[in-house]
C-alpha cells in the first residue's frame, strides 16, 4: 500500500513492483530522467535524488553518502558535453545493474516461497526454515 500522498509503484500483472517500468519508462523512468539532464549540475542533482530514493530503506546511509561524494567528484560544474554524455551512460549502466538486482530479489523471494509451499515449511527472508531458526535461537547462533 502506498503512503498517503505518495503514488503507488507500478505493478506487474503478478502484483510485483514493476522495476522495468520504474527504471526504463521513457516518460517517467529513473534512467531517462537522468539522461535528460542538460548540465553537469542537473545530472548530479537528478542522480543524487534518484539514488537517495532508491536506497531510502537501506540501513547503511554511509553507502548513499559515499556514492554522492563520488558523484560530486565525477561531475565538476565545468565538465564538457562529450564527457557528460559518457558519465550519463555510465550512471545508466549502474542503474540497470541495480534494476536487475531488484528483479532478481523478487524472483528469489518467489522461489523461496514456492519451495516453502512444496515442502510445507515456512522460511524467513534468508531461506531458513522455522526449525532452523529455532535451532539457531537455542544454540545462540542467531545474529
List the helices and strands and how they pair.
Layout: H1 19-24, H2 30-35, H3 40-54, H4 61-74, H5 81-119, H6 130-139
Helix pairs in contact: 3-4
Question: Brief description of this entry?
Answer:
The protein has 143 residues and is an all-alpha fold. Helix content is 63%, strand content 0%.
Count up the helices. Answer: 6
Supply Rg. 20 Å
Q: Poorly predicted ranges (pLDDT <50, ≥5 residues)?
A: none
Helical residue percent? 55-70%
Task: Give, in order, the helices and strands.
Answer: HHHHHH
Describe the 3D structure.
This protein is mainly alpha-helical and 143 residues long. The protein is built from six helices and no strands. Helix 3 runs antiparallel to helix 4 (61-74). The longest helix has 39 residues, at 81-119. The two termini are 30 Å apart.
Key traits:
143 residues; mainly alpha; 0% strand
